[in-house]
Write a structure and sequence with these properties.
It contains two helices and five strands. By secondary structure, it is α+β, with helices and mostly antiparallel strands.
Length: 71
């Protein structure tokens, strides 16, 4: 699945992210690799992509709540 990635500023270890709304998959590029997170709501993905601190938002709302798998 091809997901358009958006570079994130102020993301810390989070380099880029993209969202496939049809499949509800969030793909994140971290320093340690690229991971897909399933069953992410469009609202949660939008909030991440627009967060002033995407890295902190990712840690608090996605990484701790959902299980990622290497893309």
């Amino acid at each position: 699945m091809a997901i358009e990635m958006k570079r994130l500023n102020g993301g810390g270890v989070l380099r880029a992210a993209g969202y496939d709304e049809r499949n509800r998959v969030l793909r994140v590029q971290l320093e340690r690799g690229t991971y897909d997170y399933a069953n992410i709501s469009p609202e949660l993905a939008r909030r991440l992509l627009n967060a002033s601190s995407p890295g902190a938002f990712f840690r608090d709302h996605i990484e701790e709540e959902f299980t990622g798998r290497r893309a």
